[in-house]
Amino acid sequence: MPQINAGGLVYSVPDTMNFNGEDIEIVSSDLSPVWYADAIEGDDPVAVELHMELPEHGTVIFSIGSDGWNGVAVTAGPYDGDADRVDTFPEPPASFVEQVSIAPAEYDAFEDDQE
Predict the structure, then answer these.
(1) What is the pLDDT of residues 71-83, one digit of tens each?
(2) Shortest CA distance to 103 belongs to which of 1, 5, 2, 18?
(3) 29 secondary structure, DSSP code
């Protein structure tokens, strides 16, 4: 599963997304962390964006973050709402959303003691 560590969390997505009957491959480099617009150096990312090219839709971005109730929210469009960054806003397939996960990154207390 492609994944990215961001803000002490691991965001994981399935290897493929079935979109309108076509399997679209996903790799870790399609994922990028997102910060609040007023973030300062050292702030943790607040979400992750999945950048893709979809047939008949062009460039699309799906934002992945917490739904506020220990669940995952996957929404159409960039986290910052900048419509100029995408061609269209298709909804992510439910079968894809069900496989997306966010989990705490592994923490190694021993590693911190060595610094």
Answers:
(1) 899 999 999 999 9
(2) 5
(3) G
Radius of gyration of the chain (CA): 15
pTM above 0.85, yes or no: yes
CA distance 96 to 74: 9
Token pair recorded at residue 16: 């493929």
Q: Encode pLDDT of 8-49 as tens digits.
A: 999 999 999 999 999 999 999 999 999 999 999 999 999 999
| Structure token pair of residue 57 | 């839709």
Report the candidate in 44, 52, 49, 51 with the shortest Cα–Cα distance to residue 20: 52
Q: DSSP per residue over 40-81, as a string?
A: -TTPPP-EEEEEEEETTTEEEEEEEEE-SSSSEEEEES-TT-
Q: In 10 A of CB 86, how many CB atoms?
A: 19
What pLDDT does residue 106 have?
Answer: 82
Contact indicator for 11, 28 with CB cutoff of 8 Å? no
Which amino acid is present at 54? L
